[in-house]
Amino acid sequence: MSERVTPFAEATDARTLGFGASVDEWAVMTPQQRYKLNDGMLRARVNEGDSFRYIGQDPARPPGTRQRFDLTRSELLRLDERGVPYEIVSPDEVLKTIGRL
Amino acid sequence: MALDFASSVRTVVGSDLGSAGFVELASTETRVSFSRGDVVVSLAYFREDLPEPWVAVEVGLRSPNGLNLLGLWRVIPSTSGAARYWTWRFSDTPSLEANLAKIVAEVIWPYAADLWEHEDRLEQALVAQADDGEQRYLVERREADLRRARRAFDDGRFQDSIDAYIQISESALSASDRKKLLLARRQVTP
User: Beta strands of B11-164 (E only): which ranges?
Assistant: First the structure.
C-alpha cells in the first residue's frame, strides 16, 4: 500500500482507505476484525460522498497470495453491493502517475 | 510483531548485493531498495499479509520517467524449488533472516543476477509484466461492468443495466446476460 496506493493518492490529490491500525495492531487482528475495521472506514467514506478509484493489483504480488483474505476485493464487492460506483484505473495511468507498474 | 525489516535485509542481503556493485538506494518500514546504475533490486513485504508475510523480490530499471519493477516470481520456472518463494513465510526476526538467506541463495543469485547482468532480458520481462497487467485490467473492468449490470437489472434500474452491459462486447456476454440486456432494452423502449 505504501508503495503504490499512497503515492498514487498523493499525486492525484485523493485519500487512501488505510489500514486503520498500526502494523503491530494489524498483525494480531483476525480477518473478521480487519473486515469490521475496514467496513467502518468504507461506510464513513461512502457517507461523506467520496468517489472511489481502484488502481489494480500490484504486479509484484503473485495472484495466489490473495487466496486467504483479499481485503481489496472485499472492498470492491461491498461498494458494488451498496450501488457505489468506482473507477478502475488503467495500468498505464498508474505508471504515468507514480512511475512504476 | 517487533521487526526491523530494513535492518535484517541490510544484514543478510546487503553484503551480497554490495559484492555485485549495488548500494542502498532507499528504505521504508516495509521495503529496502539497492541500485547499480539504472538497475534496482528491491526487497519488501506486504503489510496485508501480516502476521505471516513473505519477502517480495523485485528487479527493475530507473528512468527519467520513474521506476519500473518486475516481480521476480514471474521469471522463475515452475520446476524450480524457488518458484513459489512467496510461500516462504516469516513471523519474527529469526524466521525473516532465515528466509532472506534462502532468498539470496535460491532466488537472487540464480534469477535476479541473470536479469541485472542482461538488461535486455529484464526489459523483455517488464514488457511481459505490463502486458499481463493490461490483460488483468481488462478482465477486472469486464467483471465490474457485469456485476454492475446484473445488480442494476435485479434492482429494476434498466437504463443503468444497459449502460453497464454495453461496456462489454455483446458477443462476450453469456446467454443469460444477453437475455437480461434484451429484457432491459424492452423495459426502457416505449
Answer: 23-27, 31-36, 39-44, 56-63, 66-71
pTM: 0.84
On whether residue B125 sits in a domain, the answer given is no
Closest approach of B101 to chain A, Cα-based (Å): 20
- At A101 the pLDDT is 40
Share of chain B above pLDDT 70, in %: 99
Which residue from B44, B50, B86 is facing A26, i.e. has the nearest CB? B50
Give A1's contacts in chain B (Cβ within 8 Å): 46-48
How far B189 CA lies from chain A's nearest CA (Å)? 24
**Same domain membership, residue B71 and residue B29:** yes
Q: Residue B123 domain-assigned? A: no
Q: How many domains is chain B partitioned into structurally?
A: 2
Residue A19, SS3? coil
Q: Residue B59: which pLDDT band, with cuts at 50, 70 and 90?
A: very high
**CA–CA min distance B51, chain A (Å):** 5
Cell numbers 519474527 correspond to what residue?
Answer: B92
Question: Do residue B88 and residue B111 come from a single domain?
Answer: yes
The secondary element (H helix, E strand) that includes residue A5 is helix A5-11
Q: Complex ipTM above 0.95?
A: no
Range of the domain at B76: 5-117
Q: Give the residue from chain B lying closest to A68, CA to CA.
A: B49
